[in-house]
Amino acid sequence: EFRRFSLERSKPGKFEEFYGLLQHVHKIPNVDVLVGYTDIHGDLLPINNDDNYHKAVSTANPLLRIFIQRKEDADYSAFGTDTMTRKKNVLSNVLRPDNHKKKPHIVISMPQDFRPVSSIIDVDILPETHRRVRLYKYGTDKPLGFYIRDGSSVRVTSHGLERVPGIFISRLVPGGLAQSTGLLAVNDEVLEVNGIEVSGKSLDQVTDMMIANSRNLIITVRPANQRNNVVRNSRTSGSSGQSTESSLPSSTPNILANFLQGEEESDEEDIVIEGSGEPQQIPKATPTSESLESLTQIELLHESTQNGFLPSSEVNLNHSAGNVSMEYEVQEPDHKSLEEDGTIITL
Amino acid sequence: MRRFLRPGHDPVRERLKRDLFQFNKTVEHGFPHQPSALGYSPFLHLMAIGTRSGAIKLYGAPGVEFMGLHEENNTVMQIHFIPDQCQLVTLLDDNSLHLWSLKQHSGASELREEHRFTLKGPPGSPPSATQITAVLPHSSREVLYLGTESGNIFVVELPAFRVLEDRTITSEAVLQRVPEDYCNRRACELVEALREHPKNPDQILIGYSRGLIVLWDLQNNKVTHHFLGSQQLENLYWQRDGTKFISCHYDGSYTQWPVSSDNRQPEPLENVVPYGPFPCKAISKIYWQTTKNGLPYIIFQGGMPRASYGDRHSISVIHGSQQTAFDFTSRVIDFFIIFSSEPTADFDDPSAMVVLAEEELVVIDLKTAGWPAVHPPYLASLHCSAITCSHHVSNIPLKLWERIISAGSKQNIHYSSMPWPIDGGTNIAPDPPQRDLLLTGHEDGTVRFWDASGVCLHLLYKLSTVRVFLTDADPNDNMNTLGEDEWPPLRKVGTFDPYSDDPRLGIQKIYLCKYSGYLTVAGTAGQVLVMELNDEDAEHVVDHAEADLLQDQEGYRWKGHEKLKTRDGPVRFEAGFQPFVLVQCQPPAVVTSLALHSEWKLVAFGTSHGFGLFDHQQKRLVFVKCTLHPSDQLALEGPLSRVKSLKKSLRQSFRRIRRSRVSSRKRRGGSGNTSEVREANAKFDQDALQEMELAPVQRKIEARSAEDSFTGFVRTLYFADTFLRDSSRHCPSLWAGTNGGTVYAFCLRVPPAERRMDEPVRAEQAKEIQLMHRAPVVGILVLDGRSTPLPEPLEVAHDLSKSPDMQGSHQLLVVSEEQFKVFTLPKVSSKLKLKLTALEGCRVRKVTVANFGSCKTDDYSENDLAVLTNLGDIQIISLPFLKLQIRYPCIRKEDVSGIASCVFTKYGQGFYLISPSEFERFSLSTKWLVEPRCVVDMPEITSNNHVQNKSGMENAARKPRSSGDYGEDERKSGRLMEHALLNDEKVLKEIQSTLEGGR
Question: Bias regions of kind Low complexity — which residues (chain A) (predicted)?
Answer without folding.
Answer: 234-252
